[in-house]
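Aim 2, interim progress: modelling of the iron/sulfur cluster-bound target.
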Amino acid sequence: MKQTKTYLHNPGYLKIDLMLKGIRVDKEVLKKANMDKCRNLFDVACGIDVILPHNTWVTVPYIEDFTKDSPYELMERDGRFFITHGDESVQVSVVPTPEFYTLKTTTGIQLSRIGLVHGGYVAITPATQCDFFNKAIECRYCAGNLDIYSNKGRVYSVEDVLETVEAAYKEGKAEIVYISIGFSDTPDGGIEFLKPYIQAIKKHFNTLVAVEALPPKENRWVDETYAVGADSVLYNLEIFNPKLFDEICPGRATLIGRERYLDALRYATTIFPNGTVASHLIVGLEPIESTMSGIDYFTNIGVVPILPIYRPSLGAKLSQYKMPATKDIAPLYGHLYRAVTANKINTTWVRDISIVTTPLEGRFFVGDEARMKTWMQNFYKSRLGLKAAWSLATLRRKLKVKVGESSAHRDK
Ligand code: SF4
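Predicted structure of the complex, ligand included:
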């Protein structure tokens, strides 16, 4: 990879730096990138989705005030797009805003309210309420991406969700459905609520479904999550340091508990295939060493750590935290890559996400030899590979659920 004084020629570093600093874009360039209509849409995080070299997806902020100081600028020359920094540039692709965002369901709801695309995923939260909101114990970094202020969430119907998935798939905008729920004060962690959505999506689409939830009280609901059709599960601990976890996530700490997170994750790795159980650790809310310990702990038990970066936002209660610098957090991603590789964790499921750096992208933070090893994984990044993964997942679930059913009967 070219040695320069900027991050432009290393997609891993560049992705992080763009997420942190944003990009300057002229109105005319936005129009040419088919992005100007983004401003008219409700509730859409208006980052520009850009594909950097080596198929590295990133959502780059460009509307917020801080982006005016960014060293990066998006330029267009003869229909091709470049990111520039000083007198250097790199060619990129710009992903137009999905057209389905402007469509409405038959019940009149704008589809961008129900589903948002982040790289190869369409993310859907069928109920916009989290039970922490009413008790003033919401996670302190929660900026209200759900309905935090009104305390009364909206629930989209299974049909609304199916129409959204169909529109996203028809447009070729997504290959995986990522369905999430906030805290629900029931022993099942919300999986009973999500079940009809997951089953309907699996019935109507030949696709993979990832579920993001808070851990259920009992492990049998982890089995149920797999049995109803989830291919991947995320229980996001967010903060590995126990004291900071209690302070920053009071609801998670008091109503679920750190130990339950770790137990549920450990158990899930015995049910779900290698590489499909994941947990977020937010970079910037605890010391780097603590995030590194979290990476080591998770990878040792077979969990994929995903490292979103904390960016203080107006709605969040943690505005005293400073944004980390790319050079300070870069070692984390190299460490992540080495840890998943050493523990033989499959990194092909958590990939092509534009809003976080994936473990596979951690290869850009280590030596060239790591990049050579990824040629196999490229197969799984192709559409053909995804089909193969889907068929394997279906077969594996059939076998696993049969085994699970008989062991459940033995337990009675
Ligand atoms: S679980 Fe925490 S981060 Fe998620 S919606 Fe509830 S308060 Fe916000």
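The pocket of iron/sulfur cluster is lined by residues 130, 132, 138-139, 142, 146, 182-183 (CB under 6 Å). Confidence is low (pLDDT under 50) at residues 145-151, 378-384, 403-412.
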